[in-house]
Each structure stands twice: as C-alpha cells, then as structure tokens.
Design goal:
alpha/beta; 46% helix; 372 residues; single chain
C-alpha cells in the first residue's frame, strides 16, 4: 500500500482528505502548527507521494525542493491542492516543486485517478533506477572479470613462453626437456581451466548453463577425474579417493559434476601444503549421492564464510595465492542446476570440509538383446 504525506494548514481539509484516502493508502498528516520540527525531519524516502495546500507550499517550499533533489533520480511526486480562485497564483517556478495542480472543490474519483497516475510513474522510476544499478554492477563485474582473467592468464603464458625458449636451447638434454615439457603441459592445463571456468561462469550469468543429466558410472568417473587431476598438477598431490564397494549407476549431469568436483579438489590442493592429504569421499543416501572433499589446509576465516559463493569473493587469508574468485561461484551454480545443496565446515589453519548432496535416481538398466 502506498504511503502518502499530507501537509495542510486547514484542519478541516486535512481531516476530510484523510477520510477520503484512508481506505486505499497509508497516511501521515502532521499539523503544520505544532509539528514543524517533525516535518523538517521527514524524508521523501519514507513516502511515495506528497499532497499539500497553498499555505503549506508557501511555508515548506525550500524543504520540498531539497527533498525532491535528495530523491533523484527517483521520481517523488508532489500534488498541490488550491482553490479555483487561486489558480492565477501558479507560476513557472511552481512546476519546479510540484507535478500536478488540482483545484477544489474536487471529486474523490478524480483525485484518486490523478494520484494513481503519479504513483505509477513513481513505480516506473524506481524500477528504472534498479535496472540502472544492476547494469552498473554488471559493467563493474565485467571489467573486474576481464582484469582478473588477464592477470591469471599472464603467468601460465609466461611459463609456456619461457620454457619453449629453453627447449630450443637444450635439444641434447632429454632430462631437461622432459621437465620443461611437464611444466608446459601444467601451464596449458591451467589455461584450459581458466578458459573453461570463464565459459561456465558466463553461461551461468546469462541463464544458459545447460543441465543434461544422463547415466553416470561414478566409480569410473571419479577414478578418471582423480587420475587426470594428479597428472595436471606440477607436484603430484596426496589425493585419496574413497568409494563404497557397490556403486550403482546414477542419473547426473557429468559435465556439471566435473566442474563441481574439479573446482573443489583444485581449491583443496591449492590451499593446502604439498604434503597435506586431500580426501574425496562418495557415499549414498536415499535418493541422493553425497560427495565430501576434505583438506587440512589454511581454512576459511569466519568473516569470509557468508560470502564464500559470491563471484570474485576471495577469503582474506587467500589473497596471496593466485585465483579468480570464480571457482566456488561456478560450483554453486552447478549444484543449483542439479537441485542439490552444498555446505561446508571450516576452521582457519585446521582445514575445510565441503559436502555436496545431489538428487540422483539410481538406474536399473535393462539390456535388450536383439536375436538375429
């Protein structure tokens, strides 16, 4: 319900107007004689529209102008009610402070219609302001996104460039060549990871992140994921996969699941010491599969935990470690597309446990043998 401010010197007009409008609006109608200090403390942000008479306008015009300027760019409509005989007093300057002029006597239906038109204009104005704010935020995030990616791309590209030059000078040293090729492969893997992360983030940001579930054999999927992950690391991590003995086929989107687990594993290894263990555990509950990724790394400070899944947010104790701040945002988007949940427990200098629960129907596969 819209909130209106009534400023009338004449008590009877104030009473009558309040009686008319009380059925459809919330009203504040202070007395100009006794509440002058209270009126000066009022703010346009607390009201959707102001109605005042000629005496109140003469008395409060400077306050009115200030309030309208403070409300900009949002439209704050003001309506002046004056007697028909006083219309001659209207001047060009009047329209700097009011948006409509109504003369009394006045029909109730006409008054309400004029008010509704102005209130709708105010609503459109607020929606436009919100849209502008969202565009500004999107533009700022885009600039930040490009800046972060540019910075993150630079390091692996420099590594690749440097080792290619060294390879050209050490053609007769197989051991050195093998080491350099390993570093190049690792840097290329980081570049691919950055590109893939940027693509997933951009698709999620525009609502085009596809969800295409299918039959997933988790034993083979997780074993391959861990093997590929170890191969992509410059220093092989102490990464342990724990699976139940019987793992039924489940119905999941393997592409999104890969983004979830690879990002969580990458963070667990990145924010842990090289000799520290990282565990990926898989177990089943009724109608869902649960993944746990546990490390003994630097942990997440309590102050950073509420914003952990926000894009570009990085924990205060991780600023010196390379990263885009997109990984956990991507994870959350992929979990949400499954209709799942992600939670975590973390203590600084102790470690972090992420738990991902995804709804998953267990597939009973019937094989149809064709007889020829």
């Amino acid at each position: 319900m819209s909130r209106l401010l009534l400023l009338f010197q004449q008590k009877e007009n104030r009473r009558l107007l309040s009686q008319w409008l009380a059925e459809n609006y919330q009203l504040v109608a202070p007395s100009l004689d006794t509440d002058s200090e209270a009126i000066s403390a009022l703010s346009a942000s607390d009201f959707d529209l102001c109605i005042l008479d000629g005496t109140a306008f003469s008395q409060l015009e400077p306050w009115l102008k200030n309030q309208r300027q403070a409300a900009e760019p949002v439209f704050w409509p003001c309506v002046l009610l004056i007697a028909r005989s006083d219309v001659n007093l209207a001047t060009r300057q009047l329209w700097q402070s009011v948006d409509d002029l109504l003369t009394t006597p006045l029909e109730k239906i006409e008054l309400q219609a004029r008010l509704e038109v102005l209130l709708r204009a105010r609503q459109f104005s607020r929606q436009l302001q919100q849209a502008n704010l969202e565009l500004q935020q999107a533009d700022e995030m885009k600039s930040r996104f490009v800046s972060i990616l540019t910075h993150e791309f630079r390091n692996p590209l420099n590594v690749v460039s440097g080792f290619v030059q060294l390879l050209e000078r050490s053609q007769n040293d197989p051991a050195k060549q093998a080491f350099m090729l390993q570093r190049i492969r690792h840097s290329i893997g980081k570049l691919n990871e950055l590109v893939e992360g940027a693509l997933v983030y951009s698709r999620a940001d525009v609502g085009k992140l596809k969800f295409e579930p299918g039959i997933c054999h988790l034993t083979e999927f997780c074993q391959q994921l861990v093997a590929d992950f170890k191969l992509s690391c410059s220093t092989p991590p102490h990464l342990y996969l724990e699976l139940p003995e019987a793992v039924p086929p489940v119905y999941l989107d393997e592409t999104l699941l890969h983004h979830i687990l690879s990002n969580l594993l990458s963070n667990a290894v990145k924010y842990s010491s090289p000799e520290s263990p990282v565990h990926l555990r898989v177990h089943f509950q009724p109608n869902q599969v649960v993944f746990e990724i546990q490390d003994q790394g630097i942990g997440i400070p309590l102050i950073d935990q509420p914003d952990l899944f926000e894009s570009f947010h990085r924990a205060s104790n991780a600023k010196e470690i390379a990263g885009t701040g997109l990984g956990l945002s991507i994870v959350k988007q992929c979990v949400d597309r499954h209709g799942g949940q992600i939670t975590f427990e973390s203590q600084p200098d102790v470690g972090t446990l992420f738990t991902v629960c995804l709804p998953a129907a267990y597939e009973q596969i019937d094989f149809d043998f064709q007889h020829h």
